[in-house]
Amino acid sequence: MTSKNTIKVAAIQQAFHGSKAATLEHTANQIRQAAEQGAELITLQELHATEYFCQVEDAKYFDLAEPLEGETCQLMKALAAELNIVIVASIFEKRGHGVYHNTALVLDKQQGLAGFFRKMHIPDDPGFYEKYYFIPGDNEPGFSPIETSIGKLGVLVCWDQWYPEAARLMALKGADVLIYPTAIGWDKDDTNDEQARQLDAWQTVQRGHSIANNLPVISINRVGLEDDPSGQTAGIDFWGNSFITGHQGEWLAKANSDEETILIAELDLNKSDKVRRIWPYFRDRRIDAYDNLLKRWID
Q1: Domain coordinates of the chain in residue numbers?
Q2: Where in the sequence numbering do the catalytic residues fall?
């Protein structure tokens, strides 16, 4: 853990720019802008280099996958070293023939690839057919933060953000911040009320992880309408609304639903200890009574 109390962090909310090359170039420019504003930790959304291809099941999209230390990793590694920053990036990883993951990378200043996290919870819903593309992560040892020069980063990915168990395990292993690269949006056919409920639920559950674990949260979502390649639906309107909270779930920075944005906030990574003295959830946990959490269902 860094001895420095406060760091400046950034969350880059962006749209897909028509091709992987154009999008990565745009992302690199956004990273430079965030670094110019003093950000030491810069976080990117889920699968930020490409379109969100999981709207359909089509084998051609496996061609978008790259090795763990492929093109995207090399670009982010170079930027991290040049700008002396830590970057949380995201790739469609080809681990081997027929073995693919949705993987978050952590690039640490001059160190390079400090670690990675393979998405654990994989959804399979209309418009989000991720089980077709991704195998659940087999991270060792499980849900564990990644050690960096600025602290321990509890990196999880999108659907992982709905599970309190994942956030709690990261906290128990010493995470200083929870980070959720995300790709989530509205079905254009949903009513305005339903869209509002979904967005509120998404924000609330993550703020709950912040409050229950006394940790700041950085949640980075993509923005913009992306067409359904099959033409069967109106596509996904990614709702943006990226945000950063403090150790008690308080809003530190929020984006809107339709614009590319660089969110900046300052985090005191040593504050968890102070807050946990007042809200001692960890002291009062009844670990002797939680065995049933390891069951799929209790009849």
Answers
A1: 6-285
A2: 46, 119, 158
In DSSP notation, 52-74 reads -GGGS--GGGGGG-B-TTSHHHH
Full-model pTM: 0.97
Candidates 145, 144, 70, 74; CA nearest to 101 is 70
Provide the pairing of β-strand 151-155 with 112-118.
Answer: unpaired
Neighbours of 295 (CB within 10 A): 8
Looking only at the bridges linking them, the beta strands covering 185-187 and 261-268 are unpaired
> Which residue type does 69 have?
E
pLDDT digits (tens, 9 = 90+) for 151-183: 999 999 999 999 999 999 999 999 999 999 999
Q: Which CATH code for domain 6-285?
A: 3.60.110.10
